[in-house]
Amino acid sequence: MFRTFAIAATTATLAVPAFADGHAASGDAAEGEKAFRQCISCHVVQNEAGDTLAGRNAKTGPNLYGIVGGKFGQVEDFRYSDINQLAAEADTTITEEVFVTYVQDPTGYLRELTGDNGRSKMTYKVRKEEDAVNLYAYLASLQAEGDS
């Protein structure tokens, strides 16, 4: 019985996609790429070398490269809202769960995290949880791609 469990556990572990930063995503990156179309008017994913991995050169929202496993308010020279700056001070790691909750209700999430009554500059809300999970997987895949 233990051997069967060990084989099953090993198989399950190998089936979960792992990324360079050690974060795994349960979503479908290909579906996340499709869902990212709703994000490109505000966001870009551009690695440290300046290569654009997704989106256009949008500047309304911050560059999303490094968001997986990153922290709130990490993009230099981007003017974050006051509540987002408070979230940065909370030093919360952006896991899949945090990301999914945040993109479905940015202001609500930040208010709960910080206890502040401010507003997020991100007014768009991802309606479907599945889309949010897939977006996280897509961003994680781009991060892994950009790190290689």
> Mean pLDDT across all residues, rounded?
84
State the secondary-structure class: mainly alpha
CATH superfamily (homologous) name: Cytochrome c-like domain
Strand order of the largest sheet: 1-2
User: What is the percent of helical residues?
Assistant: 40-55%
Q: Count the DSSP helices.
A: 6
Give the C-level CATH assignment: Mainly Alpha
What's the count of strands? 2
Description:
The chain has 148 residues and is mainly α. The protein has one domain (2-147): Cytochrome c-like domain (Cytochrome Bc1 Complex, Chain D, domain 2, Orthogonal Bundle), CATH 1.10.760.10. Helix content is 45%, strand content 5%. It is built from six helices and two strands; from the N terminus they run ααββαααα. It has a two-stranded antiparallel sheet. A hairpin with a 5-residue loop joins strand 1 (44-46) and strand 2. The radius of gyration is 16 Å and the shape is globular. Mean pLDDT is 84; it is low at 1-23.
